[in-house]
Amino acid sequence: MVYLLPFFTVMIWGGNAIVNKMAASAIEPSAMSFYRWFIALLILTPFCLPAVIKQRHVIRPYLSKLACLALLGMVLNQSLGYYAGLTTTASNMALITSLVPLISVFLSVPLLGKSISKLSIVGGLISLLGLAFMLGHGDITYFFHQDMTQGDSLMLLAAFVYATYCVLLKRWKMPFNSLTLVYMQGFFSVIMLAPLWLTSDHLLPSQEALPMIAYAGIAASIFAPLMWVKAIDLIGADSSAMFMNLMPVVAVALASTLLGEEVHLYHIVGGLFVISGVILSQIKVRRKSSKHTQELSSATIS
User: Which pTM was predicted?
Assistant: First the structure.
């Protein structure tokens, strides 16, 4: 039964890719980003604010780092995702997002001083091959003679930004629990996103957008991170991390079922290459240190 925790977490994250796409036609990206964290902050405040006040002297030295993490992981990453939804498919969004663990491995070299294995390099090449095959609709030379669509480019940038967030989250150890960490980042996110929200044509969300805001703000921003951390505690980082590779599969299946997106052979083949490359790049990490793997898995919470 404990394996249902990471499974349902991945289901929520996969569903969030669908919400990103659906939100593109229902609410402006700046407003969606703002309301997502405004709702999450509103719900978390009664549970987190007393602890934050009590620990204010402990938290204060880390405020600049918390603000930086909020900018990367919650403002830029998610805003780019919502803007990408205007010009790309939910399937592409999910498959590109699955590159985050791989990018994190490579960013760990300059930011954490980690060495990179030959398997990681091979895995990176395999994933890039799969990405080119998918985006080029079966043409592996896609990157050499075509420009990426705006939506795919934004999602690739979002993946890079979020991978940076994941690595910095591991580098900057903070002496407070995950809930406080999420709450403080959400606080800074709302402050940063408020000016963008105020430039929106419609400040109040439409009735159509309300379920999407609720899903992103409650399920994806609160329940999923908490369930993921609990899953790591119960079954370990190694087992939990393997479930992450199901996320693009779930998203593509939901996109086909709920949005009517066609799943082509190049999606399947390209997706398998991307996921295989990611798994291959992480093999040495898991064997080398279970502690490092736990940090890597914990940092992939979105």
Answer: 0.85
